[in-house]
Structures are given as structure tokens and as C-alpha cells.
Amino acid sequence: MFFWICVCIIIPQLYGTTMTKYALHMSQATYCDYVDDWTCKTCDNEIELLNIIDHNGERAILGMEKQTLFIGFRGSSNIQNWIDNVQFSLICPYDTSSICVETGFYKVYESMYTDIIYSIKTFTTEYSIQDIVFTGHSLGGAIATLFAYEMKKQQESNIYLITFGSPRVGNKEFVEDFISISQQNQSFRITHKYDIVPHVPQQFLGYLHVPHELWYNGELEDGYIDCDDSFNEDNECSDSCGPLHCTSIQDHMYYLNVSMGSDGDC
Q: What single-letter DSSP state applies at residue 180?
């Protein structure tokens, strides 16, 4: 049983709403083996399952609540192996050659691009979608960030991004461009205590996080710190445990009272 406590502050109007709850639950549902019948622990009854896309080991789930389309991306099934094997190299595939992102993340994004964009266009037309929420946990958060960035550039709908324990995705120029095309209060990067994943790839390799961080240094009911990280990570938030103490996989696998991953709340 899940208990959702709304922790609301004035500035991030999106955060603390049911949209965030649905994003969290969609992110976890992507890990579950038997999700087709939409009966997993985090398969919200209010969400209508529209499509499941599996491609080369990555999965995306698309669901709808009223006129909001949620697209959740699955993280790695083995976090430690993923951290050990991630490429940590930059690729610069955009028209502006200085905008670069992590190579492995981009390869996953690129492999899913055609199916995801086709589904978005189909459902947006069929159901008169007003808002699109990209979400994901861990690696899924990185893929969600790349899709949100692409859709923000196309400016076809109200695009929201809500991630949980996401790694850094791109370089400074990527973050600057992401911010320049984003509307206020439409992007939230939720972090938890000593979670290791938000600290890779490392900053000294040229990576930065997209804003806006909300850091939980305890349980859901303890609330969060609203972090000021427009261009630099707030050293009062998740970055405060670096560089020696941001090593917890356990903190990575537990977000807002939900156990994440294939061994989590399915």
C-alpha cells in the first residue's frame, strides 16, 4: 500500500501534485515483468495504459490520465554493472556542434526515437493531448531527459520532465540550451540522500545536471530541500555528500516510499 504525502511549496507549482506521483509510479512500473495487464503495485488505476515499447533491452511505457500523456523509461536492471560499464564519453550529435551528451545514453535514445515519436504523434492527435510528461528512474531518467529536450525544441506541446536518481546527461552547453528552451517549473530532478547515480558521469569529465533539483535527505514525510541549481549543482543538496560519501545504491533504489527496480514494488 502506498501513502502519498503532498509536500508543496510555492515556487515549483508542478511538484507535489498527482502528476509527480504518477511519474514516480510509471517509472517503477517500467521495471515490472508482467505489466501488460496493468495490475502491478504502481500501476495506477487512473492511468490508462496505451503502449509498451521494448527495444534492445530498454522499455518505455506510455499511459494517459485525462489529457496528459506520461512516458516512463526503464533504468538498468543491475545498477552496479551499469555504473561499471557506462561509457562516460561525449558525443555531439546536434546542429550546434558544442552541445554534447553521454554516448551510451544517446545510443539508447536514438534506438527508441522512431517508435516513441510515432506513438507521441499518434496519441496526441487521437486523444487531444495537452501535456506530455517524460519520466524515469536512473538510466531511465537520462533517456527521459533526452526526449524532453528534443520535444521542447519542437515546441509541440507542454513538455514536463520529472526524473528520479538521474545521472548527469550532457555538458554545459547542453544544459544551457535545455534551460533556454524550457518554461519555468516544468523540469524536476528528484534526488535521495547519498544516491550514487546523480554523481556520475563526474563533473571533471565535463558533465552537468539539468535543473531543477529537489533533494530528500531522509524519508518522504521529512520533506525536501528546494535546490538552486540553474547552472551549477547546489552544494547544500545532493552534491553536499561528495566526493566521498555519495556511494549508496540502497538510497538509489528507494524513492518517495517506493522501492525501485526489478526487485522493487512490482
A: H
Strand partners, 191: 215
pLDDT tens column, 102-116: 999 999 999 999 999
Pick from 141, 181, 178: nearest CA to 162: 141
Residues 187-221: b if buried by 16+ CB within 10 A, e if exposed? bbbbbbbbbbbbbbbebeeebbbbbbbbbbbeebe
Q: What is the DSSP letter of 198?
A: G
CB 252 within 8 A of CB 79: yes
Question: Count of alpha carbons within 13 Å of 72, Cβ hemisphere only?
Answer: 30
In this predicted structure, the answer to whether residue 90 has a pLDDT above a threshold of 80 is yes
Phi, psi (degrees; rounded to nearest 5) at 181: -105, 5
Cβ within 8 Å of residue 34, ≥6 positions away: 40, 266
Q: What is the mean pLDDT of the chain?
A: 88
Length of the chain: 266
* pLDDT of 45 strictly over 80: yes
Query: pLDDT value at position 167?
Result: 95
Separation CA 41–CA 167 (nearest Å) = 26
At 13 the pLDDT is 46
Q: Which helix (H) or strand (E) holds 142?
A: helix 139-154
C-alpha cell at 151: 520535444
Q: What is the pLDDT of residue 216?
A: 92
Q: Name the grid cell of 106.
A: 544517446
Q: Are 188 and 161 in contact, with CB atoms under 8 Å apart?
A: yes
**C-alpha span between 148 and 166 (Å, rounded):** 14
Tell me the C-alpha distance between 56 and 59, whole Å: 8
